[in-house]
Amino acid sequence: MAPKKKASRQKKPAADTIAQVMETTQIPLKVESRGDGVVVVESGVKKIRADGSAGHRSAEQPQPAAASAGHQAWRERPRPGQRADTTPSRKRLAGGAQQDAAGEVSSDTYPQKRILINALTKAFDVHKLVISSVSQYFREILAKDPSMKRLELPSLSPLGLANVITFAYLGRVHMSLYTIGCTASAAATLQIPQLLKMCMDFLLAELNVQTCVYIWNIAAAYGLLPVCEAARRFVLENFVQFADTPLFTQLTLEQMSAFLQDDSLLLPSEVTAFQLAMKWLDFDSTRQTHAAELLSHIRFETIPASELVSQIQPVPRMMMDPQCHRLLVDAMNYHLLPYQQNTLQSRRTQIRASQQTLITIGGRPSLTERALSREVLWRDPREGGASWRHLTQLPAKSFNQCVAVMDGFLYVAGGEDQNDARNQAKHAVSTLSRYDPRFNTWLHLASMRQRRTHFSLAASGGRLFAIGGRNVEGATLPSGDILVTGGYINCAYSRSVACYKVDTDTWIEKASMETPRGWHCSATLGGKVYVVGGSQLGPGGERVDVLSVEVFSPESSTWSRAAPLPLGVSTAGLSPLAEKLYLLGGWNEAEKRYKAAVQKYDPATDSWSMAEDLPEPTVGVSCCTLTLPPRHAPRRQQHRNTPAHEEQQQKNRSRESSVAPSQTITA
């Protein structure tokens, strides 16, 4: 009876793994194991099964014969005149992994060279050396009792055990979606990682819109976490195609809600999410009572106001159901209060499957030095090597402006509206604009109290702070305080560092930098502030590039050095993205030239490398990291608070009233 106890003890961790997977996948699953080794996976009330077109793969090899009353041995048939080899040698074991495992034991390890394994109604007579060469479970069992003759494994199906034995002897196994469950169960119970990986590779290869839910359920039942995650991603990325299959309407309320709540759900638009939710609700009249609960996961605030009126409002339920109507009213109020949107941000205002990307704003290109740029570009990494693409245009031309990102919006402040190097202060501006990447719109906000250029704009605690002017650089610390470094003060470059305490509205002096610098950049990455580039005075009083990079640690209030710049630049743009720093463009004093170079710093290796150049050499360019809609396809740009925008809004109102003349939205 000892072997039985061993088998049950090995099964327990598998149950723990399944429980962990159930919690990880967020969609409740119910697993029912039947005596024939078939696993039926239920989700809530409805069962989701694979359709009849499920594929299968097999390698031509003899199937293991189950021993009956005589318990036939699992062995190769001898050739005529040749004696049967009852103890397989290491050369006959298939696969390098099996050979390595077999090297741990020899033919003399087990006094009794064969063992009879019982699985429910069938038994298999196999060589101990062969089965232990692939199974950690058997190695541990036989290490404790090398003379064991019989082992009961009632938790395994005969087919699953037969596939394990086939794999042990031949290194290959027959697989199909109908039998993969019992094979994966046997591989997990008997601790055969090579076979388990073969099962996972097979499931991944069979993944499509018809089989994705079935494969997800099988993977969850047997703790195949990589397959679970792959199936989940597949459904999220192909949800529109999946919605055309019968499996979609069989989803439970919990499953449908989980999909609609997921930030990774990839859809053409949020209107599509609404239409799919209505399709699921209309399939079964008993689901209508859950309409408000399900539709609360639709991000109506990310749908343009014109589409709310033309696509959402005409649906009867959105007007007759008070709770659903409230969702529509809240979304319309969000659009009607643009100046309060930063305080109304929530999960329902965020774009699904969004991507963080690097963007550049304005600047003075070298090819049109007298003309300033209105271009806002974004870095598209999709096509192998990244490329720079047009995103939008600034409301007005500018350079040496400052930018900040807060609540998903891009804020652009100050700068110069004309190129006059001899009198920059004369052309400084105090304007402040906000860009909404969800709708590709600009909103003009209240101007700053002073005109500023070459200053610092920092976001902290839901507020924007404009600091200094004509060359000072600041960065927001993890605590929310703002660190201001260096600058060109009284005709001299400065090493000074000060910290602004937002909560107490006070300034504190910090340890000075090692190198004085001005026209430099700073950014926060990994809880530290990196001060990069700029210029200083050389031995002869001439302006020279600063190549050193200094790093400030807020915890110890100390400075350290990082790898120096390969190319010195001033008035460049600096921003973190994906745990790296990007330094864009700028002026190189040594060559007296504008630069298009993009320099990338990796703190993990403390090294700089060159990335994709800007479209043209540019100085006075700003850059930041902004969250954009997926596979960015910009809408027609609009500017609020302008005559053209007001005219367009009037046209939209006329068009909207003609679409649904008898329906209005009221609280």
Automatic annotation (TrEMBL):
SMART domains the record matches: BACK, BTB, Kelch
Protein name: BTB and kelch domain-containing protein 6 Kelch repeat and
UniProt feature, compositional bias: Low complexity: 60-69
GO cellular component, as recorded: nucleus
Residue intervals of the BTB domain: 111-177
InterPro entries registered for this protein in UniProt: BACK (IPR011705), BTB/POZ_dom (IPR000210), Gal_Oxase/kelch_b-propeller (IPR011043), Kelch-typ_b-propeller (IPR015915), Kelch_1 (IPR006652), SKP1/BTB/POZ_sf (IPR011333)
UniProt keyword list: Kelch repeat, Repeat
PROSITE patterns in alphabetical order: BTB (PS50097)
Listed PANTHER family: KELCH-LIKE FAMILY MEMBER 43, LD33804P
Polar residues compositional bias, start-end: 657-667
Native species: Collichthys lucidus
Gene3D superfamilies: 1.25.40.420, Kelch-type beta propeller, Potassium Channel Kv1.1, Chain A
Annotated region (Disordered), positions in chain: 50-106, 627-667
Keyword ATP-binding found: no
Skewed-composition ranges (Basic and acidic residues): 643-656
